[in-house]
Amino acid sequence: MSMQLIGIPVRQESIRHLCDVVGAEDPIFYRPRTTASITRGFADDRIELDVIGFVTEDTRWARDDEGEWATGVVVRNPYPDSRRRDDVPEWWPEMLSDQELIVCELRSWHPMSRPKKTYRLWNCESAWTSDAQIARSLADWDDDEGPRGERPPRSLPIVEVDAVPQPKTTPRWKKPAGL
Q: How confident is the model at residue 157, as a pLDDT?
């Protein structure tokens, strides 16, 4: 097990308990990091992805008649052989250059009964653990249809809302008189 924390915790009981729960038997040791743990990059050009499959999940809601939802997409690597190309963003993890396919999480889920026409790369995060690099890519679709196939309105009406007075807060503990 590998964790990345800011500093060294003073009380380590919760970390020891977590190690017991997951069965991590190695001794706990801490080492300082000299670089950022997570690298994030956002795709300014929102490159279009070549989708070849979906990651799906059954519905979680009792009243949902849609059934299966798309929660991710399996896509062809938008930057294959990125070690040899100059047009690859600097935030794209080099370890992905050898991969033919990449799984992207979807920012906005949709029912499988209503697939979208266009999916685009939104961002990618990567982090180094003690032994490996982990990457998480995020995609989104940009079709202009609403949840039931209807087009969204060109503009939304402006609604004014009166300010709601905030309740007065009372302290939970009052200092006794004379102290």
A: 44
